[in-house]
Structure formats: C-alpha cells, structure tokens
C-alpha cells in the first residue's frame, strides 16, 4: 500500500522547495524512537539517501521540543536500520535546547555530509518552525514528509506496512494504565478514533496525549525484543519504560 502523500518538499525551509525533488541528497533523520520519526525515515529512504539518524536526549521530561520515553534505545533502532547514529544531549530548557539541536545537526553535516534534515512533524508548528530555522541557519534543507497528512490513513499505513509500534507513554484523559505497552493495531486505531470524537484528542498523539516506540520497521534487518520494562501510572499520566532490550532475528 502507498504511503500518505509525501508533503516534505512542500514544507522545506527554502523558497523553491520543488527544485531538488529529482536530485538525490544526503539526509539526516531526527529520530525520537517513536512512530512518526521512524515512518518519516522510511519515506525518506525510498526517495533519497539517508546518511544517519540524529537523536537528542533531553534531561527534561517536559521538553518542549523532544520526545523522551525510551530515547536511549534509538541506538538499537539505528543498528537495526544499518544507519550511524549522532547522539546529542540537552538540559531541555525552553529555546536553549535549540542550541543543542543546532550543534547536533552541525555535527551530522560535518561528519556525514548531510544536506538536509527530516522530521516526523505532523501539525506541530512550534516544533516544525524551530527545526526549520535551525536547519536554515546551517545551510540545510528541512523536510516534514508527514506534514498535514491524513492521520487515520497514516496510522493504518503503519500497520499495513509492518511497523510494530507500542504506546510508550500516556498524558491525558481518557487513557488508563492498560494503554502502556499496547500495540497500535487496527483495534487500537479504532478506539483512538472514538477518543477523537468524544475527547477531542489528536489521533496521531502529536498533541502530547500519547507517545510511542517502534520495535520493528520494514527496513529493519532485525527487530527489537524487550526483555525488561517498568510502568508508572497516575492520574491519566504514565510511562512504559524499557529497561533492557536486544536485537533478534525476525
């Protein structure tokens, strides 16, 4: 089944975004470990050369910019995808974390000669505009291939294409503790659609209602097996924290 429409070129940082559509370029993918960034990576792999993944590990679990649950395990995702990983750290202070993002992108540019950066942004103007600004300051293109995609079709495409995605955190009503570690499958998507109607959540979770972690993708040579985990939940907020995991044959 085809991907949702590839909108990344229409949302890049420069005035003539279509100019490079037919020119292969080296890209770095901002990777949080969640479904949006890994799916965006898969889309980029079909169209360009992905040179590396870029992971920002924030000390602030309330970071305005960066996903935090299970971020150390992006290393396993990078290995499974056969891609080098650029890791950077930030205290996660508002706006100051953009300097750390800039340093990470500059390192990826210098080490792997990337010409652009890919994000999994769907509708977060806050995140998208800031990444675009940082990228432009570094002379990099910025692509958001899921920008304003049909979120229901996107979630179904994840399932059809073989992405294994679990819920790594919940942060709003009506999510209870049973959601932690739950796989995103057709039944889960149907329930999320009911929540959209009744509770006005964002279907993809980009409003911060839930976060995810990818244990397998079509372009992974191996899958991630979770060996140990812990859950914490209280008042509609909870996390599924991976303690130990490894790569195994599919």
Describe the structure.
By secondary structure, this protein is an alpha/beta fold. It folds into two domains: 8-143, Rossmann fold; 151-248, putative n-type atp pyrophosphatase, domain 2, CATH 3.90.1490.10. Helices cover 30% and strands 26% of the residues. It has six helices and nine strands; from the N terminus they run E-H-E-H-E-H-E-H-E-H-E-H-E-E-E. The chain has helices spanning 35-47, 74-81, 97-112, 125-137, 151-161, 186-199, and strands at residues 26-30, 49-58, 85-90, 116-118, 141-143, 164-170, 210-216, 223-234, 237-248. Strands 3-2-1-4-5 form a five-stranded parallel beta sheet, sandwiched between helices. The two termini are 21 Å apart.
Strand order of the largest sheet: 3-2-1-4-5
Share of β-strand residues: 25-35%
Mean pLDDT: 89
Number of helices: 6
Q: How many structurally independent domains?
A: 2
Which keywords apply here?
Rossmann fold; putative n-type atp pyrophosphatase, domain 2; about 250 residues; five-stranded parallel β-sheet; 2 domains; alpha/beta; disordered N terminus; about 25% strand; 6 helices
Secondary-structure topology with pairs:
Blueprint: E1 26-30, H1 35-47, E2 49-58, H2 74-81, E3 85-90, H3 97-112, E4 116-118, H4 125-137, E5 141-143, H5 151-161, E6 164-170, H6 186-199, E7 210-216, E8 223-234, E9 237-248
Parallel strand pairs: 1-2, 1-4, 2-3, 4-5
Antiparallel strand pairs: 6-7, 6-9, 8-9
């Amino acid at each position: 089944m085809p991907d949702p429409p590839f909108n990344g070129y229409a949302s890049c940082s420069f005035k003539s975004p279509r100019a490079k559509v037919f020119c292969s370029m080296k890209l770095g993918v901002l990777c949080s470990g969640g479904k949006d960034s890994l799916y965006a990576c898969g889309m980029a792999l079909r169209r360009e050369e992905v040179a590396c993944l870029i992971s920002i590990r924030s000390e602030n679990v309330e970071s305005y910019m960066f996903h935090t649950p299970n971020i150390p395990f992006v290393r396993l995702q990078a290995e499974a995808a056969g891609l080098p990983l650029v890791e950077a750290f930030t205290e996660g202070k508002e706006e100051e974390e953009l300097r750390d993002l800039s340093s990470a992108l500059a390192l990826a540019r210098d080490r792997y000669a990337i010409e652009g950066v890919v994000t999994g942004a769907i509708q977060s103007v806050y995140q998208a505009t800031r990444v675009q600004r940082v990228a432009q300051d570094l002379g990099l293109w910025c692509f958001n291939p899921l920008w304003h995609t049909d979120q229901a079709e996107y979630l179904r495409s994840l399932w059809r294409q073989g992405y294994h995605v679990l819920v790594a955190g919940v942060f709003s009503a009506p999510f209870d503790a049973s959601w932690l570690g739950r796989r995103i499958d057709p039944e889960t998507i149907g329930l999320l659609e009911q929540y959209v109607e009744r509770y006005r959540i964002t279907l993809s979770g980009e409003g911060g209602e839930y976060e995810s972690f990818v244990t397998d993708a079509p372009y992974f040579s191996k899958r991630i097996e979770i060996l140990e985990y812990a859950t914490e939940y209280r008042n509609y907020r909870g996390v599924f924290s991976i303690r130990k995991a490894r790569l195994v044959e599919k």
